[in-house]
C-alpha cells in the first residue's frame, strides 16, 4: 500500500467509524501525519481525493471539514468513474437503471399532484415540438428527473441522474433512424406520464421499465462497441 493509499484509508476509517462526524474539522496536518505515519504531501493528496468524492470540504482560510455526508452528494461523485465506462459496461448499468426507474415511477404515481402532471406533459409537448437533438435530450433528462424528484428519494434521483448523464453521451437520435426512434420514445413518455397521472403505480413501473429496456436495445443495435459517439435519456 502506498503512502497516499495509507493516508486515504486512514482518513476514510476515521470518518466511517464516526470519529470525525459530518461538519467536523479534521485535525491539523501535523497530528494526522504523525498518527497515520505519512508525509504532508501524501496526506494532502489523500485529502484532494476525498474532496473529489464529496467526502471532505477544504475551506480557504478555515481548514478542512468533513462534508455533511448527504447520500445524494456522495452518490453524485460516482459520475467521476461512471464516465469512464465503455458501452459494454454502460449496458450492464442499464439493468440497475431499469429497476430503479420502475421504482421511482411507481412512487411518483402514488405521490403526484396535478401540478406535477402538468409539468410532465409540458415537457413531453416541448420534446415533441423541437427538432434540435440536443434540446430534446435535455428535455428528456428533465422529464425523467422530474419523475424521480416526485418519487421522493433524493439519493435515488441523484443516482439515476448520474446514469442518465452517462447514457446521454450516445446520441441515437442523430442517427439515420433517429426520427423514428424519437417518435417511439415520445410515445413511451406519454404512456408513462399517463400512468403517473392516473395514480397507477403498477402501470407506471411497467412503462418505465419498458422504456429503459427499449433504450438499451437501441444502444445494442445502433452504437459501435468501442468508439464514443454521443444519448438518449
UniProtKB/TrEMBL annotation:
<dbReference type="Pfam" id="PF00392">
    <property type="entry name" value="GntR"/>
</dbReference>
<dbReference type="InterPro" id="IPR000524">
    <property type="entry name" value="Tscrpt_reg_HTH_GntR"/>
</dbReference>
<feature type="domain" description="HTH gntR-type">
    <location>
        <begin position="1"/>
        <end position="69"/>
    </location>
</feature>
<dbReference type="InterPro" id="IPR011711">
    <property type="entry name" value="GntR_C"/>
</dbReference>
<protein>
    <submittedName>
        <fullName>FCD domain-containing protein</fullName>
    </submittedName>
</protein>
<keyword id="KW-0238">DNA-binding</keyword>
<keyword id="KW-0805">Transcription regulation</keyword>
<dbReference type="Pfam" id="PF07729">
    <property type="entry name" value="FCD"/>
</dbReference>
<dbReference type="InterPro" id="IPR036388">
    <property type="entry name" value="WH-like_DNA-bd_sf"/>
</dbReference>
<dbReference type="InterPro" id="IPR036390">
    <property type="entry name" value="WH_DNA-bd_sf"/>
</dbReference>
<dbReference type="InterPro" id="IPR008920">
    <property type="entry name" value="TF_FadR/GntR_C"/>
</dbReference>
<keyword id="KW-0804">Transcription</keyword>
